[in-house]
């Protein structure tokens, strides 16, 4: 399967300077880089802290690699006149700046939006922080766990009284996605009109925003949504079910799919049961429905039911671990898993961008960089030749 050529990528010719570490900001930078932007990652002398996160392959973090492909790395000590001057020269010629420091840090360094917009009026400046650039909590820090806790995600996750976070860092990556979307959208105006913008991406707000179905439930009922495990508050059958040898999931999200389930399990009386006549009634009585269905499901193994619901046209899935998910034939068809060479020569694999344009995959144009790998080239281009 062929990749799109670099010059044909949507953000080809766009230059991004990234002052970010850990997850949300670097993920935003990588999304822009995947779509063709030239992303220069500015790192402190010690580097992005994620460089030390295991698993380490020949001393290089696989976690870091997963969020920093298609970038260049330059080391600048922003607390020194030389480092600060070099950073300003980079920004002078850039289209976008991304940073995920606490509010006020970039201002104190002389790299805030007010200062840099004078230097580069068309600059799209994106700030990612825990709670936003203003307000009573603006100076508080945050990580994915505390954002999930603050924004209500943990209150609807799991199926017991013990608080459980989502196993995937949804706050980090939702914030990175909002940031990349806002940057790409703002570039349209900035490149046409010559005026940039300061984008404020609060992780707290982004995490609340992706809980739109939960906030709307609260606004509509006055009651906070409750945790339901794998079940759905407004649909059934729509959860994981126990079979003879494990679990599988089905999602019958409308009446036609419900009738397909009834036929598949050969229980026609369910369609006449007043408890299950409508979607809302099925959701209201889903505990009873689950008990009835599982009495049938435990008679056969997962493989049997996967085939039954495939033939019935009902959305279904095994409960995959990541090894199984990555081995899915659709992953191979889409060419999502790619070979990747880490600095030092270690060969690994990575999950590439899932986006395809006109049937073509986005390329991995550069492997993740070694710390300061591009110092000389970048500072030379910025007019700050190293000795």
Q: Name the overall outline.
A: elongated
Helical proportion? 25-40%
Count of helical stretches: 16
What Rg is obtained from the alpha carbons, in whole angstroms? Answer: 25 Å
What's the number of extended β-strand segments? 15
Task: Please identify the structural class as seen in this structure.
Answer: alpha/beta
Mean pLDDT equals 95
Let me know the largest β-sheet.
6 strands, parallel
Distance between the termini: 44 Å
Oligomer: single chain
The fraction of residues in strands falls at 15-25%
Strand order of the largest sheet: 5-2-1-6-7-8
The parts where pLDDT drops under 50 for at least 5 residues are: none
Detailed description of the structure:
There is one protein chain. The protein is an alpha/beta fold. It is built from 16 helices and 15 strands. The chain has helices spanning 24-34, 62-67, 81-92, 105-109, 113-119, 144-150, 170-193, 203-209, 212-221, 255-265, 279-284, 286-297, 302-312, 322-326, 329-334, 375-381; strands at residues 15-19, 38-43, 56-57, 60-61, 71-75, 96-99, 124-129, 197-202, 238-243, 246-251, 316-318, 337-341, 347-351, 356-357, 360-361. The strands form 5 sheets. Strands 5-2-1-6-7-8 form a 6-stranded parallel β-sheet, sandwiched between helices. Strands 9-10-11 form a 3-stranded antiparallel β-sheet, with helices on one face. Helix 1 links the parallel strand 1 and strand 2. Helix 1 (24-34) crosses helix 7 (170-193) and helix 7 (170-193) packs across helix 8 (203-209). The chain is elongated. The protein starts with 14 loop residues before the first strand and ends in a 6-residue tail after the last helix.
């Amino acid at each position: 399967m062929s990749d799109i050529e670099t010059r044909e990528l949507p953000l080809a010719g766009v230059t991004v300077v990234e002052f970010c570490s850990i997850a949300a900001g670097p993920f935003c930078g990588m999304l822009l880089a995947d779509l063709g932007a030239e992303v220069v990652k500015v790192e402190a002398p010690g580097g992005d802290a994620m460089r030390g996160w295991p698993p380490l392959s020949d001393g290089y973090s696989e976690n870091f690699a997963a969020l920093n492909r298609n970038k260049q790395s330059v080391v600048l000590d922003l607390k020194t006149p030389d480092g600060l001057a070099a950073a300003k020269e980079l920004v002078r010629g850039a289209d976008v700046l991304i940073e995920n420091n606490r509010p006020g840090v970039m201002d104190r360094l002389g790299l805030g939006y007010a200062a840099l917009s004078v230097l580069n009026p068309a600059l799209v400046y994106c700030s990612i922080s825990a709670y936003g650039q203003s307000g009573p909590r603006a100076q508080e820090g945050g990580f994915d766990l505390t954002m999930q806790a603050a924004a209500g995600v943990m209150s609807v996750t799991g199926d017991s009284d013990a608080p459980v976070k989502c196993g995937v860092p949804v706050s980090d990556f939702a914030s990175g996605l909002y940031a990349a979307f806002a940057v790409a959208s703002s570039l349209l105006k900035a490149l046409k009109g010559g005026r940039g913008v300061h984008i404020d991406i609060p992780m707290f707000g982004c995490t609340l925003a992706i809980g739109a179905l939960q906030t709307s439930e609260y606004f509509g009922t006055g009651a906070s949504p409750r945790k339901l495990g794998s079940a759905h508050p407004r649909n059934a059958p729509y959860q994981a079910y126990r079979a003879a040898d494990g679990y599988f999931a089905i999602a019958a999200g409308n009446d036609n799919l419900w009738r397909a389930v009834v036929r598949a399990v050969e229980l026609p009386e369910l369609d006449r049961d007043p408890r299950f006549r409508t979607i809302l009634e099925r959701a209201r009585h889903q505990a009873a429905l689950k008990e009835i269905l599982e009495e049938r499901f435990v008679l056969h193994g997962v493989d049997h039911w996967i085939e039954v619901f495939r033939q019935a046209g009902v959305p279904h899935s095994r409960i995959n671990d990541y090894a199984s998910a990555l081995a899915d034939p659709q992953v191979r068809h889409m060419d999502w898993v790619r070979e990747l060479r880490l600095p030092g020569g270690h060969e690994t694999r990575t999950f590439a961008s899932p986006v395809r344009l006109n049937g073509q995959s986005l390329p991995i144009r550069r492997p993740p960089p070694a710390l300061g790998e591009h110092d000389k080239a970048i500072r030379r281009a910025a007019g700050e030749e190293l000795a």
